[in-house]
Amino acid sequence: MGETKENELRNVTFEAIAAGRRAAEDGEVVGVLFGEGAASHAEKMIQYGGRPCHSVGNGGTKQYTTDAYMQAMEQVCEEEQAEGLVIGIHRAVRIWRRDFPERLGSGLITDCVDIEGDGADAHFIRPVYSGKAF
């Protein structure tokens, strides 16, 4: 899931695509952007390896609401038969991590700062002690 700030893609978007590519091994990484004007950033996400790219910016997703964004993301995940979801530090994560994995029937790994290995051998690195140790 990509993020924009002041109508520019944030670096965390490209970090998420790279992490998804490492974890996906030979699978496809699908980029997703929300909000008005999201489609204008799709080409840049595709250049970094997030294809196909879904831009969700009409209906109930123009202004952020948890339910509308979660429902739209769930629909994209179902359409693409997603095996995982990579989101940077986004305002939605704090709320989504409670409900979204259950809706998708999947697990959840939060606060990762790195991935070691690829595909099925991937290990997700998280900081401990509030980021004071790894």
What is the terminal-to-terminal distance? 25 Å
Helix content: 25-40%
CATH topology title = Rossmann fold
The major beta sheet can be summarized as: 2 strands, antiparallel
> Which residues form runs of ≥5 with pLDDT under 50?
none
Query: What's the number of extended β-strand segments?
Result: 6
Order of helices and strands: EEHEHEHHEE
CATH level 4 superfamily: HUPs
Structural domain count: 1
User: In the CATH hierarchy, what is the architecture at level 2?
Assistant: 3-Layer(aba) Sandwich
Proportion in β-strands: 5-15%
CATH class: Alpha Beta
Overall shape: globular
Strand order of the largest sheet: 1-2
Total of helices: 4
Mean pLDDT: 78
Description:
The protein is α+β, with helices and mostly antiparallel strands. It has helices spanning 11-24, 42-47, 66-80, 91-104, and strands at 4-5, 8-9, 31-34, 53-56, 114-116, 123-125. It has one domain: Rossmann fold (3-Layer(aba) Sandwich). The chain contains four helices and six strands, in the order ββαβαβααββ. The strands form three sheets. The chain has a two-stranded antiparallel ribbon. Strand 5 (114-116) and strand 6 (123-125) form a beta hairpin. The longest helix is centred in the middle third of the chain and has 15 residues, at 66-80.
